[in-house]
Amino acid sequence: MSNDSNMQWGIERRLEFIDYLLYWDGKVNRRDIIETFGVSTPQASADIKRYQELAPHNLEYDKSKKYYFAPASFSPKFMKPDAEQYLSQLLNAQQNPESLIIEAPAYATLPNIRRTIDTGILKHIVRAIRDKQAIEIKYQSFSKPNPSWRWISPHALGFADKRWHCRAYCDNNQDFRDFVLSRILEVRHKKPAFLNPQDDKEWQTEVTLELSPNPNLSEEQQKAIARDYGMQNARLQISTKVALVHYFLYEYGLETDQIGEKQEIVLLNRVEIQAMQQQLRPTP
């Protein structure tokens, strides 16, 4: 951790760290604080003493093992435990030098096949969005066998279907659509973009998807799915942009009304969603 980063760590953050380790690991010692924050031994001792003053029932000292442990009376005082936060930190522990996890449990993840995005091309896209410019790109569409040049006016970036794309107005098709960043092969010209991102109705409009467990599952299985997804009364509402709805439905196998044998959730308001998509879709 750099000296600049060390300067950002205040006493509040270190007290939160002590809380964090006591909750997740059940123990903490001075070395944990020293190695994580780069502070001196006296400072680490002072931090633990301060924690004891503010939460006297939250830690006890084990002289034989030389660490403080969380007794049965422990209750976090400086942070709210969050399972998603912990697992997110675990997932990125090796790449994140500021991760709070000291003793990570054994874990494995599926390999992530990343699409290759040219840094220079991404720079042009980002600047075009910022400066409200149209750019001429060479794009490999899957509807045509060969790449072709076209003018687009990007106004936002999106991430869906495990890939990044830019949302842009396409001069060739005269509509707003998504362009996968890894399929943009070249950028050669630019000019002012005379468009208003507010005209992209599918991007600007939010829609709420109403989900519930697959009704073909057993009652206990449906309860398990409801718990998995944090549903209330067997219902879950997800808000997203209309332009991203088809990606969501594809990812969760909800493109059609047909309910698969292993499908966990179903879309309840499909008719409403389809009507909104049809209403906002540009007329050819």
Describe the structure.
The protein is α+β, with helices and mostly antiparallel strands and 284 residues long. The chain folds into three domains: 3-91, Arc Repressor Mutant, subunit A (Orthogonal Bundle), CATH 1.10.10; 119-197, SH3 type barrels (Roll); 202-280, no CATH class. The protein is built from ten helices and eleven strands. The protein has helices spanning 3-8, 11-24, 30-37, 41-54, 83-91, 119-131, 201-204, 219-228, 245-251, 270-280, and strands at residues 27-28, 60-62, 67-69, 133-139, 148-160, 163-170, 175-180, 184-192, 206-213, 236-241, 265-267. α2 (11-24) crosses α4 (41-54) and α3 packs across α4 (41-54). The longest helix is centred in the first third of the chain and has 14 residues, at 11-24. This is WYL domain-containing protein. Residues 207-273 form the DNA-binding transcriptional repressor CapW C-terminal dimerisation domain. It holds the Pfam family WYL. It comes from Candidatus Thiocaldithrix dubininis.
